Structure formats: C-alpha cells, structure tokens
Amino acid sequence: MDPELKKSIDNLIATNGIVVFMKGSRQFPQCGFSNTVVQILNTMGVKYETVDILADPRLRSGMKEYSQWPTFPQVYINGEFFGGCDIMIQAYQSGELKEILEVALNS
C-alpha cells in the first residue's frame, strides 16, 4: 500500500470516533448496505464521519488491503475495524452495538 494513502487512512480513523468507508455519502448512500449502516448510526444518534470510496479508486482498493475486508461499507469505531453491514445489523439487533458505542464515545 502506498505509504501516503496509509497515513491518510490512519489519520481519518484516529481523528474520528466512528468512520464509515462507504459507497456514497451519509446524505446519498449509493448502495443498500451503505444505506443500512447510515440508518443504524442515525437511529443510534451518534456522531460519525463518512468517506465516499467511489470518489477515489485508489482509496477503494486501498481500504480492502488496509482492513483485510473485501466489501463496503467498512465501519471503524475508536480506531478499530468493527465490520460491515451484516455485523452492524447483528450488533444493533442484539444490543451489543449500543454498549460498544457508549463505551467508545465516553472514553
């Protein structure tokens, strides 16, 4: 991976409590999975940043290598890779996501 790209990704993840690398933006998700993650986070009422991987092909391919996760969206919480849409749905439905976010955002 290009060191400059890695540094940029590291910085985005380090400076934001929750980051979603997704297709589209929070206002205009470009796929159903990205939309689902946005709706979950909006329902939770938490502050989060989104990064549109469609705007930069280098970022799109770089994120797959960075996270070792082949699909989007990719959610990072407190600097750690949390998962994609399926993991977000499961964690939300079980109540685990609420606990994780409370700890993450209060630390």
Automatic annotation (TrEMBL):
Single GO MF descriptor: disulfide oxidoreductase activity
Keyword Iron: yes
Residue positions binding glutathione: 23, 60, 72, 85-86
Keywords: 2Fe-2S, Iron, Iron-sulfur, Metal-binding, Redox-active center
Domain of life the protein comes from: Eukaryota
InterPro entries: Glutaredoxin (IPR002109), GRX_PICOT-like (IPR033658), Monothiol_GRX (IPR014434), Monothiol_GRX-rel (IPR004480), Thioredoxin-like_sf (IPR036249)
UniProt-annotated binding residues for [2Fe-2S] cluster: 31
Record flagged with keyword Kinase: no
Domain annotation Glutaredoxin: ranges: 18-81
Database matches in SUPFAM superfamilies: Thioredoxin-like (SSF52833)
Family note: Belongs to the glutaredoxin family. CGFS subfamily. Belongs to the glutaredoxin family. Monothiol subfamily.
Protein name from the UniProt record: Glutaredoxin
